[in-house]
Amino acid sequence: MKKRRIFETAVHGIFLIMGLVTVGCVLLISVYLIIAGIPAIREIGLVKFLFGTKWASTAAEPQYGILPFILTSVYGTAGAIVIGVPIGFFCAVYLAKIAKPAVREVMEGAVSLLAGIPSVVYGLVGMMVLVPGIRKLFNLSDGAGLLAAMIVLAIMILPSIIKVALNALEAVPEEYESASLALGATPIETYFKVSVPAAGSGIAAAVVLGVGRAIGEAMAVMMVAGNAPNMPDSLFQSVRFLTTAIASEMSYSSGLQRQALFSIALVLFLFIMLINAALNFFLKREKVKQ
Amino acid sequence: MIAPHVSAKRKMYGALMRVLMWLSVTVCAAVVLFMIVYVMVKGIPNITWELLSTKPSYLSGRIGILPDILNTVYIVIATLLIVVPLGVGAAIYLTEYAPGKKIVRLIENAAETLSGIPSVIYGLVGMLVFCEFLGFKTSLLAGALTLVIMNLPTVMRTTQESLKTVPESLREGAFGLGAGKWRVIRTVVLPGCVDGVITGCILSIGRILGESAALLFTAGFAHALNNIIDGLASPGATLTVALYFYAKENGEFGVAFAIAAILMVLTVLINLSATFIGKYFRKRRSI
Questions:
Q1: How close A56 comes to chain B (CA, Å)?
Q2: Distance CA B142, CA B145 (A)
């Protein structure tokens, strides 16, 4: 009997450890990023690092200002949201409320396919279609830049926006809609003026999720954004995002340059944590309502 | 039924919203269709038996992607072998053992945080921890371990979902017959989570196939032909990483599109099997 109890305790312990692996991983990642990211910020100076407008890591007198990357990531994400959210939103309303079951099934399949396509494939298609297209359309010497990245990101965040917004719209109680229809509102008015506000926090969560996806994407952006560390002054400027700044120099970096890349990762991580907090806020509100 | 009076302004609003919805759905469908058709048209003519069955050779200037295919297979196997037990164990802890709401919330929050972290950060931390601190160097194994952390939340969540559907009465019956907790888990709980594990595996395979940023610094980009043991110990490019290099660094767009077409077909297959398996198990449950 005693042997069996020891055995059961051991099993319990093993499962406890497996359960705590995720927590351990989060701690590991946070601690490692902080330890690796702080030294360069200390050496360069926080203000000079965050608000310096020039990144010249391989110059004779290297400069490590990441404001261009921060602004590019913010503008790029904002652009992706401006393009992607309306399309995703109207799509979600249509699929949730109006589409016939067959149409809905096909479109849902298409949207999950869009979510499953590897980011390098988006990058490749962007490189071959979007970049030359932008170059010809606007008569530029090179089409790779901020606008191309925005469009690719907008397409890449569509699936997350559509899926989450669709679920939120589905969860709106039917009585709300029946009441609105009974009061004389047309179906379309009902969907947009009753169902959408009722699903508000879920739709907000969808947008925030899209922001997170866009700001974290690296490879597709790397293939279409041009990758020069410029300030994002125009839509056609060749730019570098926070993610691509890390990815493009990591393989050959050393010394302070390498440490500065870790610091960029730390900044990106803080952005993501903020976005996660916002996401949790909206998801919790959605749950409370249900 | 008497149609209610609807003013012209309201009719306009309705029409406008209809047009916007219709446009959005069309754009969405067009993008998907274009991606598939374009990649297939550009890729399939470039897929030859030689490309699939050889390794790149500098002497003849020939490009082959067999090593990349094998590397992808190796990394999928290695990742799943580690992540499935871990994820299932974590899910079992959450549903069967966890003493209170607090620890469940802690673990679930951690999993959510993990799924929000961008892959480039995983790549960086994976490089620091696995390649440098633990001394695995740049290798497929280091890449696989990084992918384990990325996919842990997925496997955990799908297993948890399926465990919730195991009826409490089955567990109580087993306990009533005098089985210990481990015995109940082994005989009642584990068989009940097969569908969750399979779904988790499929989703993970999809994610591993598509991953590139996390593998760039951890698994590297060599094209050597290895067996699985040597392969895991040495650096190697998976299909996605190879696509990136052929397109961005070498300008070999034909090869890049061939790989893209292969990845596209695999993505479609994975999506179809995920849907199919979901339906199959739902049907079996409802009987």
A1: 21
A2: 5
Q: Where are the beta strands (DSSP E) in A8-103?
A: 55-56, 63-64
Residue B257 and residue A124 in contact, taking contact as beta carbons nearer than 8 Å: yes
Q: A residues 111-150 near B, CB within 8 Å?
A: 111-114, 116-125, 127-129
Which of A117, A280, A287 has the most B C-beta neighbours within 10 Å, making it the best mutation to test the interface with B? Answer: A117
Is B121 in Cβ contact with A269 (below 8 Å)? yes
Domain with CATH 1.10.3720.10 in chain A: 67-289
A 10 A CB-CB count for A119 gives 23
Cα(B29)–Cα(B25) distance, integer angstroms:
6
In sequence order, which residues have a C-beta less than 8 Å from that of residue B22 and are 6 or more positions away?
Answer: A94
Give contacts of A 40-79 with B, CB under 8 A: none
| Residue B62, helix vs strand vs coil | strand
Q: Give the pLDDT score at B45.
A: 93
Tell me which residue in B39, B213, B268 faces A125 most closely, judged by beta carbons.
B39
ipTM score here?
A: 0.90
Percent of chain A with pLDDT over 70: 99
CB atoms within 10 A of CB A136: 10
Q: Which residues of A are less than 8 Å from B28 in CB distance?
A: 87, 91, 107, 110-111, 114, 158, 162
Q: How confident is the model at residue A104 (pLDDT cuts 50, 70, 90)?
A: very high
Q: What pLDDT, on the 0 to 100 scale, is given for residue A286?
A: 78
CATH of A67-289, one of 1.10.510.10, 1.10.10.60, 3.40.50.170, 1.10.3720.10: 1.10.3720.10
Handedness of CA A114, A117, A122, A125 (dihedral sign): negative
| Mean pLDDT within A27-32 | 93
Measured in degrees and rounded to the nearest 5, phi and psi for residue A52 equal -65, 135
Residue pair B155/B161 in contact by the 8 Å Cβ criterion: no
Q: What was the pLDDT predicted at B87?
A: 94
Q: Which among B113, B118, B216 has the least Cβ separation from residue A268?
A: B118
Backbone angles phi, psi at B119, to 5 degrees: -70, -25
> For chain B, how far is it from start to end, CA to CA, in angstroms?
42
Computed on alpha carbons and rounded to an integer, the radius of gyration of chain A in Å comes to 23
- In the predicted structure, residue B1 carries a pLDDT above the cut 60: no
Task: Answer yes or no: is pLDDT of B37 > 80.
Answer: yes
Distance of CA A218 to the CA centre of its chain: 10
pLDDT per position as a tens digit, B110-169:
999 999 999 999 999 999 999 888 988 889 999 999 999 999 999 999 999 888 888 888
Give the bridge partners for B57, in sequence order. B62
Whether pLDDT at B284 is above 90: no
The answer, yes or no, to whether residue B286 has pLDDT greater than 70, is no
